Amino acid sequence: MLRLVMVSVLVFLTAVSVALLLLFSSGWWVAVLIFGALMILAIADASQKKHSILRNYPVIGHMRFALEYIRPELQQYFIERNYDGRPFDRDTRSLIYERAKGTNQEQAFGTERDVNQVGYEYLVHSTAPLEPPADPPTVRVGGPDCTQPYEMALLNVSAMSFGALSANAVLAMNKGAAMGGFAQDTGEGGLTEYHLRNGGDLVWEIGSGYFGTRTKDGQFDPTMFADKAALPSVKCLSLKLSQGAKPGIGGVLPAGKVTAEIAKARNVPEGVKCVSPSAHQVFSTPRGLIQFMATMRELAQGKPVGFKLCVGSRTDVLAICKAMLSQGVTPDFIIVDGSEGGTGAAPMEYEDHMGTPLTEGLMLVHNALVGTGLRDRVRLGASGKVATGTDIIKRMIQGADYTNAARAMMMATGCIQAQRCHTNHCPVGVTTQDPHRARALDVEDKSRRVQRFQEATVSEAMRMIASIGATGPNDLSPVMLRRRIGHMNTKSYAELYNWMSPGQLLAEAPPEWAQDWASADPDSFSIHHGLSGRN
Question: Between 350 and which of 56, 246, 308, 501 could a Cys-Cys bridge form, CB atoms 3.0 to 4.6 Å apart?
C-alpha cells in the first residue's frame, strides 16, 4: 500500500509542479526537477526485484542503506537499536548478508572479539593443515529399521511454518534448497503447495496440533499422514516435542496471520489465534513416544523418522533411551533445539528463562545415546542460532551430525530482523501474510541468495575443518575446541566435560549420572528433574 501511495503522491506532485511551471512562473522548474527525479526513483524502486525494502518503501527505503554506508558507528547505533532485540552480532549479520549476496567476506585490521574475555571459545588449528575436500560430505540418516535413508547436508533450513513465513519466503527457501541439495524443514504448520512447488527436499514436521494431518476434532489422522508422507519430496518425518524459544507450550500463530489459506491448510478457524496444545495426544510416556516412532516409520513406508526437542530433564532423556532399549526401536534422528532458538511469537519470559541452551542439551543427548550404546543408530541434528561455519564445527564437536538454521536462512531471504513477525507487518515480506508486503520478496533472487549462503557457509566449515588438521567431520574431537574459563586459563571441551564411553550407562553409570539413570522410567515422564551436574 505504501508503495502505491508513494508513487501516486510523487506523480501528483510532479504533475502539479509542471502545471505551475507552465501557468505561472519559470521558478517552478526546481520543483519539477526535484519531484520528477523522486518520481522516477520511486517507480524504479517499486519495480526492481533485488531489494525488498525498496519494493515496499520506495525512496524512503534508501535511508536504511545510507545508514549502512555510514559504518560502523551510526549503523551500530541506529540499526541495532531499531531492528535487533536479541540479534546476531554485527559481524555475523554482515557475514550472512555478504555470503547470501556472493560478495567479499574478508575484513581488515583483525578480530573485534575480546579474546581475553571469560567464556571466549576458539578452535585449535594444526601446524600441518590439510586441503578441504572438493565436495562437502553428507550424513546418512536412517537406522536399521529404515528402508529409505536420506543423505542430509551439514546445514539445512530449520523448522519454519507457512503462516509464520509468507508463501514467497517458503518458495524461496525451498527453491534454494533444491538448487543447493539440502533440506527444508516445514515447521509444524502443515505440508503446503509452497513446500512442494519447487521440488526441494523436505523434512515434514508434525507438531502437537497435527496440522496437515488432523481430523476435524484435532486428532492425528494416520491415513492423511501416510498419503502425504509418500510424496517424493518428503524425505524425513519429524515429530516436534518442544521448541527452544518456548519449551513447554505449543506453537503460536497470531490471529492476524491466520488467513483463509492458512486456516484451510491447518484445518483451524480463520482469523483466530492458532495455538498448538502443550503436549501430544497420541502418547504420554517415553515408551509411547518410541512406539509412535515405529508407527510413523511404518506409515511412511520406511522413510526416516525422528523427533525434535529442547532438552529439559536429563531424567526424561534417559527414560526415552530406556524405552528405546526396551522396545528395540530407535528414531532415525533427533533434533536438539537450543533455548537460544528464535521464533516469531513467544512469551518473553519463556524466551529468556526456560529451556536448556544448545551446548548443554546437545552434549546431554549425545552422551545419553553413547552411554546406552545407541549412538550409531541415531543421527543428531542441532538447531538454535546456527549461522556460520564455526557454528557448524562447534556443534559437531559437541555431538551433532548436522545442523539446521532458521534466522540465518531468513536473513539470506531478506529478513532485516525488524522483529515485527507477530504483527503481520514485516517490512520485507518474509514473515507476513499481507500479499502487498509479501510481493516485495522476489522468489528467484532470494532463492539464489539462500543457496549461496548455505554453500558458502558449509564450504567455510570444511576449510576450517581442514585447518584443524581433520579430514572431515568424523575426525573432529572435543580437544579441538577450547574455552577461556579465567583470565589466566583455558581448557578444551575434553577437559571441561565428562564424555561417555559406548555402553557405559549399561555397565555402571558414572556417579554424576547414577541418580538420574536410576530414576529414569520408560513408562513415565517424571516431574523429578534430576541432577544438574556436568554432562
Answer: 246
